[in-house]
Design brief:
Number of domains: 2
CATH architecture of the largest domain: Up-down Bundle
Mean pLDDT: 84
Strand content: under 5%
Number of strands: 0
Largest sheet: none
Low-confidence stretches: none
CATH superfamily of the largest domain: Amino acid/polyamine transporter I
Structural class: mainly alpha
Number of helices: 13
Order of helices and strands: HHHHHHHHHHHHH
Shape: globular
Length: 331
């Protein structure tokens, strides 16, 4: 039996909202500590877990499809990539903090590309260790698969000199898993108010969305609105549903941005480009195709929610944004 209302999720959301209102530097400091802890945990899991891997768990490396699209096989890999795409939103969110960066022309590309390479390598290694410790079916539908994997390693370490160490690692991993979720919330809820801030400056959102707190210098009203919406969604919506919705929304944004690069390169070649994407139009076209294919791999129920939200967004744009757009007014 599951709860109707997820109170802990709401309380954590409220705490993160208040943290973000008090300032970017404070939020960044807290997030930096959490990230260091989480990376340490991941490295420990990779190093400690590798000693207790059972290679038999890696066979078959790609389980045979059951006959239903998305259930194992290559279609399962495709759907899995689409479902977990929300894990990569943090790289996109870095760009929304450009206004707080000291040298965004240099720091943004380095931050995004550098973190993408590092995290991808860590994702691959920790995933390989986890399914080497525990059969993949035992990892499905687990709220904390990292904890399940390290528990298996701890059990295999029983009676060995590593028994005490693995018991301590298990505790650290449990704390790190919770901290990692909090880190994701800080990054995501940091990004959305700044998107509202930029939209307000362009006239696409009401002026209140662009107001900055006189003391803390943060978009406090946008942050409060974002926090309220996230709290309600977190309290009432299953995590799986939210994950799919966030993934398909992000993939759609990637499709639009990738195609937008091609259009802008042709229509506005004179725009200043501190970071110039190479291999245009090939690279952005491949990005758009891959993102759209991943969208197609997601369940139809996720598409229905996307269409609903898109409908609300389009209605708001033509009802408010189009008429108040500064770009339209300047023409």
């Amino acid at each position: 039996m599951t709860a109707v209302f997820n109170l802990p999720a709401v309380l954590i959301t409220v705490a993160v909202t208040l943290l973000l209102i008090f300032g970017v530097s404070e939020s960044a400091s807290v997030n930096a500590v959490i990230v260091v802890l989480m990376v340490t945990v991941v490295l420990i899991v990779i190093g400690a877990g590798a000693m207790f891997i059972d290679p038999a768990n890696w066979h078959p490396f790609i389980p045979e499809n059951t006959g239903t699209f998305g259930e194992y096989g290559w279609s399962g890999i495709l759907r899995g990539a689409g479902v977990i795409f929300f894990a990569y939103i943090g790289f996109d969110a870095v760009s929304t903090s450009a206004q707080e960066a000291r040298n965004p022309q240099r720091d943004m590309p380095r931050g995004i590309l550098g973190s993408l390479v590092i995290c991808t390598v860590l994702y691959v290694l920790v995933s390989g260790v986890m399914v080497g410790l525990v059969p993949y079916k035992a990892m499905l539908n687990q709220p904390a698969p990292l904890v399940v994997a390290i528990q298996a390693a701890s059990e295999r370490a029983a009676g060995t000199p590593w028994e005490g160490t693995m018991a301590a690692v298990k505790i650290l991993v449990t704390v790190g898993a919770l901290a990692g979720l909090s880190s994701v919330m800080v990054v995501m809820m940091l990004a959305q108010p700044r998107i509202f801030l930029s939209m307000s400056k362009d006239g696409l959102m009401p002026k209140w969305a662009g107001r900055v707190h006189p003391k803390y210098r943060t978009p406090h009203i946008s942050t409060l609105v974002t926090g309220a919406v996230v709290a309600v969604a977190a309290g009432l919506t299953p995590i799986g549903t939210l994950g799919n919705l966030v993934s398909i929304g992000t993939l759609m944004a990637f499709v639009i941005v990738s195609l937008g690069i091609i259009v802008l390169r042709r229509t506005r070649p004179d725009l200043p480009r501190p970071f110039r994407m190479p291999m245009v139009p090939l690279l952005p076209l491949l990005s758009a195709i891959v993102s759209f294919v991943l969208m197609l791999s997601l369940p139809w129920s996720t598409w229905e929610r996307l269409i609903l939200w898109m409908g609300i967004g389009v209605a708001f744009y033509f009802g408010y944004g189009y008429r108040h757009s500064r770009l339209r007014a300047s023409r």
